[in-house]
Amino acid sequence: MDTPVNSFNPYKHLKEQFVSNLTGSSMLEIIALATAVPVLILLRRCFCSNGMRDGNATKISSKKNDDVIVGVWSLRAYMAAMLLDFLLIILPLLLFFTVLSEWTSVAAVLLTLLLISLIAAKRYGASIYLEDGVDSLRSNISSYRVSIMVVTCLCILAVDFRIFPRRYAKTETYGTSLMDLGVGSFVLANSLVSRQARGFPMLKLKNALQSSSPLVVLGIARLLSTAGVDYQVHVGEYGVHWNFFFTLAAVSILSSIINIPPKYSGILGSLIVVGYQVCLINGLNVYLLSNERGTDIISQNKEGIFSIFGYWGMYLVGVQLGSYLFFGNSKQVLRSNNWAKVRVGILSLLFWLLTVILDRKVERVSRRTCNVAYVTFVLAQNLQVLAILMLSDYIPGHKISVLEEAFNRNLLASFLLANVLTGVVNLFIETLFASSALALAVLVVYAFVLFLLVGLANFYGIKSKFW
What we know:
Layout: H1 12-18, H2 27-47, H3 52-55, E1 61-63, E2 69-71, H4 75-97, H5 104-123, H6 134-158, H7 181-192, H8 195-198, H9 205-228, H10 235-238, H11 244-257, H12 262-289, H13 297-300, H14 302-327, H15 337-361, H16 372-389, H17 402-409, H18 411-428, H19 436-459
Antiparallel strand pairs: 1-2
Transmembrane segments: 27-47, 68-97, 103-121, 142-164, 240-260, 267-288, 308-327, 339-358, 373-391, 411-429, 435-460
Keywords: Membrane, Transmembrane, Transmembrane helix
GO cellular component, one term: endoplasmic reticulum
């Protein structure tokens, strides 16, 4: 059915077609992108490890309720640091996702070589000392979660412009792409540092439902708001009514209902994923990937509902990995970064190898069904990013950037703000017909406004970290 002429979004059908029937890019390109993102963050620390943060800012340490030492800056120094972070991290990422996309692999190699050279230069003549402690590992995990959020916030608007390569957008059925990693990365990042992974007692069902209620509310709000303004929604992604927030809520609730010790959660998660994969290759994938839908709620939202099994299994595997890599037998107490970094790197390589084998011998990677190859794909890429960020210990005097601090304090709120800004841009600019110059200008302004607001929220102590 065509969109009415007087709709808020007259080109809705064209925009939905624009993100449909895509096949993704190669795994090698995904590996290159997964290298460029954390390397840019580390380069920022190399360039300014002892500069802006320690020299030009007036900093007073104060103890907050969340046991994090927070620095109080002058607004001028803080904004200067934010601008530097924007120029050294955000702007290059935007260029890699748009006009420099053909040079991603070359750029990843060159940036890695530059990072190695800078680390070697900074360490030459200095005492051989690696920061290896709880604080180091905690900051690296935070940086990893922030990197997921930053890339997601940039891509959700960029994908609506022709300047964004179609191979980076979500695949229709099978394949690997940058944006395919989004929801899986959120699920995995949440599981690695979840209550289960840290060894805390699980919430009772009533408390778990209350804890997940904000996600349910956000899911309903997204459903109503997109319908209210006739916003484009690719039905093949989750279904007619389902969305990202419902998936997160469902995984959280299922994990609370079935509560097992972390050391066994990976086994259960693997059994769930393998069992689900058996069902897929025996006919379920044909049903899920078909465009035919019935009138019942399950058929209308078949992709979102059935993929829960894959995401739940992924979450449980992530819980055991988080417990093993970061918390160990003592629980609730982080291991040393040096202990974890080697194991994270080895696991990343093993999951990449497993992904290639599963993709070729069992079933191709499919975000839409969240099959076993997609689960290992997400694990491989996320652990790769985390392993690279753990190399920060080799940067003498490194400091976490202001941008990372700001996003870490308001992760989900940042994502919600990015969604609102994306919706506003789509309602006032015909993204499909924008020239490359206009598209890049809009994306730069969008990113700057988003990171400015997130940074100011952090500066004034506003915190809504509930993811």
